[in-house]
Design goal:
- Belongs to the class-III pyridoxal-phosphate-dependent aminotransferase family.
- It comes from Streptomyces graminofaciens.
- Pfam families: Aminotran_3.
- Keywords: Aminotransferase, Pyridoxal phosphate, Transferase.
- With 501 residues, the protein is of the alpha/beta class.
- The protein has 2 domains: 195 residues, Aspartate Aminotransferase, domain 1 (Alpha-Beta Complex), CATH 3.90.1150; 257 residues, Aspartate Aminotransferase, domain 2.
- The strands form 4 sheets. Strands 4-12-11-10-7-5-6 form a 7-stranded mixed β-sheet. A 4-stranded mixed β-sheet has the order 1-2-3-15. It has a 4-stranded antiparallel β-sheet with strand order 13-14-17-16.
- A hairpin with a 2-residue loop joins strand 1 and strand 2.
- Helix 6 runs parallel beside helix 11.
- The two termini are 31 Å apart.
């Protein structure tokens, strides 16, 4: 689908309203600026004193957002930032998009109830209709949907319960580097877990291939290992209830699944009657260049886990699955806040806007352009090990330029300290980025699908400047531990500090 003229006009207007950088500092009276900065610092101090040590993004991004539009956030001190975090991928249309605000206001002005548990409403019916309109062919015509609690991890838990009930089995297959949420079952399937109920399988990638070969050969070895685990009676892995995978590992470091390997996983699970669960919480709603990331490979999963962007910036999570898996008894899975009417209205507007205006196709085009422009950084700076991504999920892996590879011709060790430094330098230049990866060494970009060409250039310029500043700065030995511990910025998205769900 081509990008329509109305969509481009809307994006252009958004660009005019959302000037990039710190332009609001210019011409402001010094006293006014100092007062705003003091107020922001007070808010940050109170947050540090009152909130849990589990907070994440607030540590690395010491800003206090007070206004936002499209790609741009304005802090309480008046500074403006280009937001390539986008609520960890939640804001497909950016901040406060007009169609989202209009949908929310319409519900508020109508007098409709905002809390209805799982009762049928016109708002829910419209959301479900639009959602089914976007689903991959082969699933939409025989799908069921379960509305869950407000977060993606709730939908993952529901998916696990679903396939266990449908198959009568209990075990799950998941992959190294995965991230599926912060509740107990989701954590078991994520990369940092070690519970025996989940069997970990190799997830193929080129840069840090688990077999050291990469490419199609590495993906084939990973597929063969999966077959061996399932077919070897002495492997210790009984036939599982399901397999869960991300078409692109986001928190794992922006690692796209090879299309051929994903098709092999579909074949392997189908021939063994193992339901395949696609976690599209972060990859869905056009972000990777298709409406759903599984569409790149033509795979139709048995179950899809959806959240983040489907709520149009508000909390919403659902599980979509084949009707023959629907063996639940009434009340087998419930949740007080599964009927979020404002989120459904905002989600309907977002889904329709992305579909009608070809924003998935635009994400594919812009993502390809960004990867092309960032690719040369690998040869220019020794601290840049890899540049990868799919659509508007972009990752730049930082490596230690002074450390030798673990194996000949292999990648250098990850450098989370350099990634943190790049994030800090980006923030100084008015650019918000996320960190991730199995070693917290990957700088991640998740801009909204409405980002303009002009804004894309600004993002690339600021990111490149930040990487160059870090690459040119002499590296100092790590300081000795201080007697008094002070709060330090922490890598956003590191494996033990997730907050995306």
């Amino acid at each position: 689908m081509a990008v329509t003229e109305s969509a481009m006009a809307s994006v252009g207007r958004e660009s005019e309203r959302a000037r990039s950088g710190h332009e609001s500092d210019r011409g402001r009276p010094r006293r006014e600026y100092e007062g705003a900065r003091t107020a922001q610092e007070g808010i940050l101090r109170r947050q540090s004193a009152r909130e849990s040590s589990a907070r994440t993004y607030a540590r690395a991004l010491p800003i206090v957002p007070v206004r936002a539009r499209g790609l741009t956030i304005e802090g309480a001190d008046g500074r403006r930032y280009l937001d390539c975090l986008s609520g960890a991928g939640t804001l497909a249309l950016g901040h406060n998009h007009p169609v989202v605000l209009e949908a929310i206001r319409k519900v508020l002005d109508s007098g409709a109830p905002l809390h209805v548990l799982d009762l049928a409403t016109p708002v829910k019916d419209a959301f479900t209709t639009e959602l089914f309109r976007t689903l991959p062919p082969g699933l939409a015509d025989r799908a069921r949907v379960q509305f869950c609690g407000p977060a993606g991890t709730d939908a993952v838990e529901a998916a696990f319960k679903l396939v266990r009930a449908a198959t009568g089995r209990t075990g799950m297959l998941a992959f190294t580097g995965a991230y599926h949420g912060m509740t107990a079952g989701a954590l078991e399937a994520s990369g940092g877990a070690c519970e025996v109920r989940v069997t970990r399988l190799p997830y193929p990638q080129d840069y840090r291939c688990p077999y050291g070969v990469g490419g199609e050969h590495g993906a084939e070895l990973a597929a063969r290992w999966t077959e061996s685990v399932l077919d070897d009676a002495k492997s210790g892995v009984p036939l599982p209830a399901g397999m869960i995978l991300e078409p692109v590992q986001g928190e794992g470091g922006v690692i796209p699944a090879p299309d051929g390997w994903l098709r092999r996983m579909r074949e392997i699970t189908a021939t063994r009657s193992i339901p395949l669960i696609a976690d599209e919480v972060q990859t869905g709603v056009g972000r990777t260049g298709r409406f759903w990331a599984v569409e790149h490979s033509g795979v139709v999963p048995d179950v899809m886990v959806l959240s983040k962007a489907i709520g149009g910036s508000l909390p919403l999570a659902v599980v979509v699955y084949r009707d023959d898996l629907d063996v639940w008894q009434p009340g087998a899975h419930a949740g007080t806040f599964r009927g979020n009417q404002l989120a459904m209205a905002a989600g309907t507007a977002t889904l329709a806007h992305v579909r009608e205006n070809g924003l998935a196709e635009r994400a594919e085009m812009l993502g390809s352009r960004m990867l092309t422009q960032l690719g040369p950084l690998i040869g220019e700076f020794a601290c840049v090990g890899d540049v990868r991504g799919r659509g508007l999920m972009i990752g730049i892996e930082m490596v230690d330029p002074e450390a030798p590879p673990a194996v000949a011709d292999g990648p250098r060790p990850a450098a989370p300290d350099l990634a943190t430094a790049v994030q800090r330098e980006c923030l100084r230049r008015g650019l918000i980025v996320e960190l991730g990866g199995r070693h917290a060494g990957v700088v991640r970009l998740l801009p909204p699908l409405t980002i303009t060409d002009e804004q894309t250039n600004a993002v690339l310029d600021r990111l490149t400047d930040a990487i160059e500043a870090v690459a040119r700065e002499p590296r100092l030995p790590a300081p000795r531990a201080a007697a008094v511990r002070t709060e330090q910025p922490e890598p956003v998205g590191s494996p033990d500090r997730k907050s995306g769900r």
